[in-house]
Specification:
The protein is built from seven helices and 13 strands. With 207 residues, it is α+β, with helices and mostly antiparallel strands.
């Protein structure tokens, strides 16, 4: 990625090599391949350097629009301070109702916009349900056939899925803010070489 700098200001971002008209001169696209950096700089074209120190995982944060700045012969692409996504639900309030903004199918206190916690807990529930589904037939058969019982390993596995699911949901619920939620999901390498996250994982069935 390149930038055109005129009068010490970035005036154009060049994402792909193309013919450029700078001043009264038309330059072919080949200059981006054939010219040296100093030759490009001489006509105001600079390769862009990216500073991603403020850019954060978009699963957890809302990043600002990128901006470009020229200083001391360098064009830098950067972002402003990211805003954490809301970790808790926002609710419809009496003020919303008084202002006429409350939808007909909603009441004061209902969820207006879901926070990350609600979304993440729903995902955990869906994952747990997906893990349990293949063994549901054992439970159905046991309820319909009097002399049949769910195998011990299956019963143990199903119980462990529910237990871990509940633990994970509690950990999410107890997270105080968005960075704490991000930490729960961040994988790190342990002393034994394994890679784990504080939230842990739902168990899988070993056959």
């Amino acid at each position: 990625m390149y930038a055109l700098v005129e009068d010490s200001s970035v005036t154009k971002i060049i994402t792909n090599p193309k013919t450029m008209v700078i001043g009264d001169v038309r330059y072919p696209a080949k200059i981006f391949q054939l010219w040296s950096g100093s030759e490009l700089n001489a006509i105001g074209i600079y390769e862009v350097t990216t500073d991603s120190s403020n850019f954060k995982d978009e699963k957890w944060y809302i990043n600002t629009n990128e901006s470009y700045a020229y200083s001391s012969g360098i064009v830098t692409r950067s972002w402003g301070t990211a805003t954490p996504k809301a970790h808790a639900d926002s609710l419809w309030t009496q003020a919303d109702s008084d202002d006429g903004d409350l939808p007909d199918d909603k009441s004061v206190g209902d969820v207006k916009v879901e926070g990350l916690k609600t979304q993440l807990i729903r995902t955990i529930k869906q994952q747990a349900s997906g893990l349990l589904a293949p063994t549901d037939w054992y439970v159905v058969k046991a309820s319909e056939v009097s002399d049949y019982s769910v195998p011990t390993n299956i019963a143990t596995y199903r119980a462990s899925v529910r237990t871990k699911s509940n633990e994970m949901e509690t950990a999410i619920t107890n997270a105080s803010n968005t960075p704490a939620l991000e930490t729960l999901y961040t994988y790190t390498e342990q002393d034994n070489g394994s890679v784990t996250r504080p939230l842990g994982e739902l168990p899988t069935l070993e056959i």
